Amino acid sequence: MYPFVPTPAELLRDRRGGPGMGIASLCAAFLGAAMAFGGLASCTVGPDYHPPEPPIPANFVPAASLKAANEHRTDHAVKPSNWWQSLHDRELDSLIDRAIAASPTLEIALDRLQQARAQEAVVVGAALPAAGGTAGGGWGTGGDLARGRASQTLVSAENGARVSQVTNLVGFDAAWEIDVFGKFQRAIEAAQYDVDAAIAARNVVLISLIADVTRAYLDLRALQMQLAVLRKDIEVAQKYVDFVQERFSRGITNELDVTLAQRELAQLQAQVAPLTAQIEAARYVIAVLIGEFPEDLGKELKKPGVLPVLPGRLRAGLPIDLLRRRPDIAEAERELASATALIGVATAELFPQVAVTAAGGRQTGISPFVVSPIWSVGPAIAAPLLDFGRLDAVVERADYRTRELLFAYKQTVLNAFREVDTAIDAYAAEQDRLRHLADALTAAKRAVTLATERFDRGLIDSLNVIDAQRQEYAIEQQYVAAQQSAAAQFVTLYKSLGGGWEDYQIFPPIRRPLPAVAAAFRSLLIPNAER
Fold this sequence. Notes:
The protein has helices at 8-12, 21-37, 63-70, 90-102, 104-126, 152-155, 183-249, 255-269, 272-289, 294-297, 319-325, 327-348, 390-456, 462-497, 516-525; strands at residues 130-137, 168-178, 353-364, 371-382. It is α+β, with helices and mostly antiparallel strands.
């Protein structure tokens, strides 16, 4: 275990809050004081970022459809933050929890987030002073045998005092590039925005994962229901074959009726194997989504179930809520912010770079007993003069990249509204379809009851009963298919609304970066697999 050492990113992160804010404020004040001391704290170049405010409609287009779908419903409206829990299915809740805990896809997104956080530490570290050890020496005829071997800053400190030939230099050197024109400040801004974008990208993966698990589970239950209805339909078809076969044996009907009945039975039986394969395929999809092999699921989900009852009351919210909730919009906006900050980084390269360098150590001559202390400290300035427009072209490229991401943000917003409008209309249409099919199914069941009563009184033969049952199961198949389609549109709707990530925003910390010397020893003592 290593002692608590704040990362450079955490030292400077006072924009997003969280642990280490006091240290962050202190470090930021220290850097600001150093820049103010040079009288250059207000020289940050590049544009300041302001979030875009795209025009948005007051309401979604199919608001009337949503109102009609909610009419005559007394149940509570669905919360977008945990919409799948409105189905009240414990098995589904368990699968989603397992998927969030073990999905490789979500782990990949989290690792990308951690990369962005580590990169932020890299960028902040580049803005802080750096120091290192240096030494050099040799044998020969030159007056300074350390030149070209030790660092130039330390070599500049040697003076030849008390020695006729400098043979060795040993010491330390340090450098700090002063952020005169805000290059590091803009780079840190961009890195912080990149972290935010990575968080949003991870949330995009999260809501897609939740939607995919829910969709696969609902498909599984719908397919199991379709198989149950198919088996009942096959049972009725078999009764009809037996009925026609008996009539043929008595000479009441001809062989054509028997053949047609057998054909219909065979057609129904042919649907069993493909439907069973689809059920197994749905189980395999769920297994992969929760990070398991299909074989590991064993008998789980083998037992047939029914589709959960879909909630009737929907709450899409206001369009402004969509901008705040959808992580893909947040990701596009953060990418735009990062690109804007990088314009400042590119612009700062047009101006002189100012650094403070220092070195200290000792020098020795031919005699190892003659040792002289040496030191040097001073500024260093480098300015581009002739580059044939290369640096200006870099700024232009950064500006066009920002414009590209601005239009990408606007396109993301437009697509988000289109997806929600489409999903609301589709779900309302499926609800209407279900209402009409429910009426048809009720009438079909009533027809079976009436046919059975008439058969019991001897008014009709069993063929009428069988035909009524076949019609009932045909409508029931349509009803189950409509239920499956409505369930799919329900998932699509709440995925398009962008909810589901709000309760899963605790991320593991990144490893505390150590100074290079300590990190080198750690790499020797602790294998990569154990870090």
